[in-house]
Amino acid sequence: xxxxxxxxxxxxxxxxxxxxxxxxxxxxxxxxxxxxxxxxxxxxxxxxxxxxxxxxxxxxxxxxxxxxxxxxxxxxxxxxxxxxxxxxxxxxxxxxxxxxxxxxxxxxxxxx
Amino acid sequence: xxxxxxxxxxxxxxxxxxxxxxxxxxxxxxxxxxxxxxxxxxxxxxxxxxxxxxxxxxxxxxxxxxxxxxxxxxxxxxxxxxxxxxxxxxxxxxxxxxxxxxxxxxxxxxxxxxxx
Lengths: 112, 116
Fold this sequence. Notes:
The complex is a heterodimer of chains A (about 110) and B (about 120). Chain A is mainly beta.
């Protein structure tokens, strides 16, 4: 069975600093997709960044980047130059076939 | 191009009533997914549908829950005889045909169901 684990229920970071959110997953598949979604207080799920497992290069989207370690089944999200608008729940997700599997989330607070 | 639309955004039902949640996918998307998010938890997959077909309902409770995606109109998630434990946020997502890279899912704003 596929599982996604986010071991940090809550984190905080000073504005303009860098923070890393961890995510590990378990699968026997070789090719799959990984995603980070952001859920602000509005509860809308917003895609932050995505990665295909067969691509070794880490994905980057502006201030957001990932550290994808396939052998370790680790997919952490780094947020640089944190902004107040980054305050939200962050969910790591794994896609295999039809289904997405989500972690339990990390609540990130950016402190002014 | 409008995003995924869900209505209503908030729904209040008394125990024993029926709840109907609607989802209109993005234009050009033929795949619809329903997820449930309980308080303080992540999203849990419920069902995956294409037009007029249920592809995967492995996450759907066996009783009281049903879903459809008719040829015309929105996808409907139906919960009969609701109980307090059904209170949750229900998210719909849609995606284009599988040939598109990443097979990304685009989420709607969710429907928050409260059962009194």
